[in-house]
Amino acid sequence: MSYTALYRKFRPVRFEDVKGQEHIVTTLKNQLNAERIGHAYLFCGSRGTGKTTIAKIFARAVNCENPKNGDPCGECAACRAIGAGASMNVIEIDAASNNGVDNIREIVDEVSYSPAQGRYKVYIIDEVHMLSIGAFNALLKTLEEPPSYVIFILATTEVHKIPITILSRCQRYDFKRIPIDTIVGRMRELMHEEDTSVEERALRYIAKAADGSMRDALSLLDQCIAFHFGETLTYEMTLDVLGAVDTSVFSRMLRLLLDENIIGAIELLEEMIMQGRELTQFVTDFTWYLRNLLLAGASGDGLEDVIDMSADNLRNLKEEAEMTDTAVIMRYIRIFSEVSDRIRHATQKRILLETTLIRLCRPEMETETDALTARIAALEKKFEEGAFVPAKGTASMTSGTEAEAGGITHGGRAAEKAALLAAAIPQDVKELIGQWKRVVNSAQMPMKQYLREARPSLGQDGRLLLVFQDGLASDYFRQPENSQRLDELLSGCTGKKVEADIRIMQDVREFEDNYVDLQAVIQMEIEEEE
Fold it and tell me: Residues 115-151: pLDDT tens digits?
């Protein structure tokens, strides 16, 4: 005898067997008991939440010869025929492959014939959002005024694609994602019936991975049992089969990202790949880990109610939440959420994830607000640790990126960051930038023309940087003799020896992302003094 998948073998045949949709089950049973049956229903919700299952139970119930409290008896001829898929009264249509006008016109023609047996003809149209506009129009009139013996049940995962003219003619029922505890309880019952031993922790991980879908959970459970048939299914076995990683790996990855350790993060990714871990699953699970970390940092008591985790892991999570900044975690979540949509269809998943880890370790590569906040936080940490050597006669050095971020943020914080950087600029460089236009005009052609394209910035050692877009100007100053004449010009304007380092950028965005605009910072300082 051929093997039957768990989700098919244990498909509910009575309303009471349906888990997680009590609000819908109660309403439909009340309608059946009161004989207030509608003519058109719309079942909406994500995959695997019971839409088709309840539709089939409802089809049996309306035709059952001996219903019991709204449930089909499962023993009469009508129930047995519908359960075996041999009844002419229940017609299932997959709109994904039968979405044309002609397919719907066939239904319209059949509707005029009353059922040979039983009370109702029930049409279950799955993935109804796939119907063409012409097909919807062909269905419209019949859906509005069907014969008394016809019931339409439309099921969809994308209700926003259903025309309003169809929506207004149906009773709408929204199916919820099934809670993890409910899925675990159902799987535990089925494993008892199957006489199969599974660790509770493994069941919880599978339920979490199913993302609210009972069908997905049973399919994943089936896959894990098949791989380790005859053995007790453990949590570690489940991770191996599903290509997932243990939560300790998430903690290691987080610490590497917080330390901006690109090499370490790439090596950990390589380690997971060599262990056969599925990168798509890693992105999903790590995003959940970050979500839990965010909640651990923002919540007080009662954290156990919103985070499904053991006491030991929860204690470790709280410790890690204390060492992280909320804005940084939110930035990580944003980036990983973007990647989770792309990685499912990416042909080079590893490269996509490697570049993502680099972005996380290098917030200066982005201009989003949370990235700028992360840059400021990282620079403040380095500043506190003495990572920058103060220039002689100046306050402690702060990275140019921080001032750039300060110039973008609003209000007093912007001025505070700009003032902090301005104090760290060597006096000779500050004087030079304060009279930059006069410096440029004092140069001889063609140097004068090329200097007009320069963007003054500051290196971490307090040296003046002149940033040029790749082109004639950058080529000009690449020549040693022209670079030397530039240093002589700058030294002559200040009366002190000033040497400028030349940097090349590909576009203006690169300057905004990686350099501080000295002219803007010094101008802000002047405005503050006024």
Answer: 877 789 999 999 999 998 988 988 888 888 888 899 9
Rounded Cα–Cα distance for residues 260 and 332 (Å):
13
The token duo for 73 is 């008896």
CA 208 to chain centre: 15
Give the SS3 label for residue 220.
helix
| 250, 315 contact by CB (below 8 A) | no
438 φ, ψ (degrees, to nearest 5): -65, -35
Distance CA 28, CA 35 (A): 10
CB-based burial label for 526 (10 Å; 0-12, 13-18, 19+):
exposed
CA atoms within 13 A on the CB side of 244: 23
The answer to whether residue 409 scores a pLDDT higher than 80 is: no
Yes or no: say if 287 and 336 are a contact pair by the CB < 8 Å rule: yes
What is the tens place of the pLDDT at every residue in 94-105?
A: 888 887 888 888
Task: Centre a 10 Å sphere on the Cβ of residue 421 and count the other Cβ atoms it contains.
Answer: 29
CA pair distance 447, 136, nearest whole angstrom: 71
Instruction: Specify the DSSP element, H or E, that contains 294.
Output: helix 279-298
